[in-house]
Specification:
Layout lengths: L13 H10 L5 H32 L5 H49 L3 H6 L2 H43 L1 H46 L2 H9 L3 H38 L1 H10 L7 H42 L22 E8 L9 E8 L4 E6 L5 H8 L7 E5 L11 E4 L10 H5 L8 H10 L3 H6 L17 H14 L4 E5 L7 H15 L3 E5 L11 E6 L2 E7 H6 L3 H13 L11
Parallel strand pairs: 3-7, 3-8, 5-6, 6-7
Antiparallel strand pairs: 1-2, 1-4, 8-9
Helix pairs in contact: 1-10, 2-3, 2-5, 2-10, 3-5, 5-6, 5-10, 6-8, 6-10, 8-10, 9-10, 13-15
């Protein structure tokens, strides 16, 4: 089962990616506007200080005007306090906006992945999904928050300082602006390099997460020790970790180089201003010269900050590319699958007509023009060789795959509604929680009595009751505190709690011994009552005379009917049953299920 994963083009469409990222701020535009106003207030009050200082140096201090000096000094204190308050308020607002954007991104990615077809999950490592939702979104969290705040502050500060310097001495302002333009050109070259390195870094981090998830899982540790490849696993991880460290080093070195060039250039400006003030521009007062030097810091500081932000934004565009690659994926989940919170309606008889499905890039495992009738309350056993399409039929009946052709309709002739079917696959999924929590996933309101009722059906009630913590016993990561058979039986009990009228068991007792599996099937039949039961099996269970058998071969139905007739015909079903009897040393004809 294959399906192509998301494709990311990290070196293309930077402007388009940036525009899409900015659009994420649209729902918070009023907060953004308020943040901009607070930035203007913070910078305006901040830049007032140097302008007041000019009056202090040129007038109040030389002429010893105590009243004027007190007023000007008081004004500087008030301006500083107001600037700090506005800065804090703006920071709080920008952080609020940033975290809301990040939260929405996480939720959108989660929802998009949740709606992907099953082929996606078989072709894309789970660690890649985790990296996009946790690592990638986390990486842009600080960029969104601090870059937005820094950008607003830098732009407003730069604009105000340029206006003030032009008012005081326009030639000086032009020199500083020209220097900033040259440095921006240099910075752009380094920013592109950092973006390429950032993309490589994110890919290696995803690879490292995948290796950790595989090698340090219980199965990975057992495999490493039994095949004596633990050292090789460690060496593989060390190699990946070394690549990540090298990429981070090169990425940060590129950023430091750009910052160092800017710092060296800006360090030369104050001496140049002092030299020009004492020679070419000798008419400038001491106060004006000092203020120009201070304003130069107000200009060069934001220019340097914008250069750093340019590099950070360039790197973040790589992460946005990876995030948008997931958000742009086309889903193939049937409408309403897994989303209904209402109880399923009664469906009566189920009619399968012309059902076909083909896996991309695979020649086997699909279905071709399958017709079936599933009467309400009936039991249908689907058998066939590996790759004959049995599991695919189960997935289609459960609404987990969208058929290429054909339909599955209820007695009223309508498409099957959501939550009609519950599928129990061969690989039982357990979450790292208690037995009770795992059982209640599909039926949160189930009482303790109901939990033990279904556990008794699958012959686990007494076992769980004897545990020190009973239903509160933790099953461990992927349920590894339980045996394979116990995991399957917990999954069966969980399905029995589901209100779905169609229950599909896909090799759901393969990890249970033969005699126990027979008893489980008998108990499940008795418990299901009027539920429609579909059993996908290699090991054919004991049957009732009314049970229907469907034999698949190469995705097509080659035989269908009841046991007696099919066995007597000496066709595909008869040969499979004889082979099973030879392997298990049991009688050829299955014994009737007691009622």
């Amino acid at each position: 089962m294959s399906e192509p994963g998301p494709v990311t083009h990290p070196h293309r469409g930077g402007g388009r990616t940036l525009l899409r990222a900015v659009r994420r701020l649209a729902p918070h535009r009023w907060y953004v506007l308020l943040s901009l106003l607070l930035a203007v207030a913070a910078v305006t009050t901040s830049i007032t200080g140097p302008l007041i200082l000019r009056q202090i140096i040129d007038s109040a201090l030389p002429q010893r005007r105590a009243g004027q000096l007190g007023f000007l000094c008081g004004a500087m204190v008030v301006a500083g306090i107001l600037s700090s308050l506005a800065f804090v308020a703006q920071g709080a607002l920008v952080n609020l906006i940033g975290q809301r954007v990040v939260h929405r991104l996480r939720v959108d990615i989660y929802a998009r992945v949740q709606d992907m077809g099953l082929g996606f999950f078989s072709s894309v490592p789970n660690t890649d999904i985790q990296a996009r939702i946790v690592s990638d979104v986390g990486a842009i969290s600080d960029v969104i928050t601090f870059s937005a705040q820094g950008f607003l502050s830098a732009v407003v500060t730069l604009g105000a300082a340029i206006v003030a310097m032009l008012f005081l001495n326009w030639p000086m302002a032009l020199v500083v602006l020209f220097l900033g333009w040259v440095l921006n050109l240099v910075n752009n070259r380094f920013a592109l390099r950092r973006r390429v390195l950032s993309n490589d870094h994110q890919e290696r981090v995803a690879d490292m997460l995948q290796r950790v998830g595989e090698d340090l899982s219980l199965g990975g540790v057992i495999l490493g020790r039994t095949l004596h490849v633990s050292r090789k696993q460690a060496e593989g991880f060390a190699a990946l970790s070394g690549e990540v460290s090298e990429l981070v080093y090169r990425q940060r070195l590129a950023g430091r180089t750009a910052t160092g060039l800017a710092a060296a250039a800006f360090t030369c400006l104050p001496p140049v201003i002092y030299l020009l003030s004492g020679t070419v521009l000798a008419g400038l007062s001491v106060g004006t010269t000092v203020v120009i030097v201070l304003l130069q810091a107000y200009i060069t500081g934001p220019i340097g900050q914008l250069m750093q932000l340019s590099g950070s934004v360039s790197e973040s565009l790589v992460v946005f590319d990876r995030i948008f690659a997931y958000l742009d994926m086309e889903t193939e989940t049937p409408p309403g699958a897994g989303t209904s919170s209402t109880l399923p309606e009664a469906v009566g008889d189920i009619r399968v007509s012309g059902l076909s499905y083909t896996y991309q890039g695979e020649a086997s495992g699909g279905l071709h023009m399958v017709d079936l009738d599933l009467p309400e309350g009936s039991t249908t056993v689907v058998v066939g060789e590996s790759g004959s399409g049995k599991s695919t039929l189960g997935l289609l009946l459960a609404g987990l795959l969208r058929p290429d052709a054909g339909s599955i309709r209820n007695a009223a002739g309508r498409a099957m509604p959501a939550r009609t079917a519950c599928l129990v696959p061969q690989e039982a999924t357990m979450f790292n929680a208690s037995i009770a929590e795992n059982l209640r996933i599909g039926c949160p309101a189930a009482t303790e009595g109901q939990l033990f009722e279904v556990l008794d059906v699958v012959r686990l009630g007494e076992t769980v009751a004897r545990l020190p913590l009973g239903l509160d016993t933790q099953v461990g990561e992927r349920g590894y505190q339980l045996s394979g058979g116990e995991r399957q039986r917990v999954a069966l009990a969980r399905a029995l709690l589901s209100p779905s009228p169609l229950l599909i068991l896909d090799e759901a007792t393969s990890a249970v011994d033969g005699s126990s599996a027979q008893i489980l099937h008998e108990n499940i039949r008795a418990y299901c009552g009027k539920r429609t039961l579909v059993i996908v099996a290699h090991r054919i269970p004991r049957l009732l005379p009314s049970d229907r058998i469907v034999v698949l071969r190469h995705g097509k139905v080659v035989e269908t009917g009841q046991h007696a007739a099919l066995y007597a015909s000496e066709g595909e079903y008869s040969r499979m049953l004889s082979a099973q009897a030879a392997v298990t040393d049991t009688t050829v004809a299955p014994q009737p299920v007691p009622r």
